[in-house]
Amino acid sequence: PDGGEASDRVLQRAGAAHPRVMRAMPRLLADAGYRLLGMRSYPVTDIGRADFFRSALSSLAGQLPATGAMSARQAADLAERLRRASEGNRFFGAMTFYTYIAVRPG
């Protein structure tokens, strides 16, 4: 009902220990004496049905309460809503993986 805004915040909080580290990585590498040679990004998106995210849906009911993000009942309800959304071709899930290629001169 919220269009995903509330569940996005919960999933981001529960799933990422350092959600902004990749944004800071160019500076962190430079501060540590590394030279950034390149990067790659790999977006993964499921629209309609959960394909990539299918296995994640079954783990939410255990993962979210373990991180303190929500109660077991709330997590089970969220996982069920997302599963039904996938079955009804109404699912949306997206994630981007990043790789940095850097060397330390010398």
List the helices and strands and how they pair.
Elements: H1 5-15, H2 21-31, E1 35-48, H3 54-67, H4 72-87, E2 91-103
Shape: elongated
The end-to-end span amounts to: 55 Å
Read across the widest sheet, the strand sequence of neighbours is 1-2
Residues in helices, as a percent range:
40-55%
- Structural class of the helices, strands and pairings? alpha+beta
Q: Total number of β-strand segments? A: 2
Given the structure, what is the number of helices?
A: 4
Mean pLDDT: 88
The low-pLDDT segments are none
β-sheet strand percentage: 25-35%
Please compute the radius of gyration using only Cα atoms. Answer: 17 Å
The profile of the biggest β sheet is: 2 strands, antiparallel
Order of helices and strands: HHEHHE
Quickly list its features.
106 residues; alpha+beta; two-stranded antiparallel sheet; 4 helices
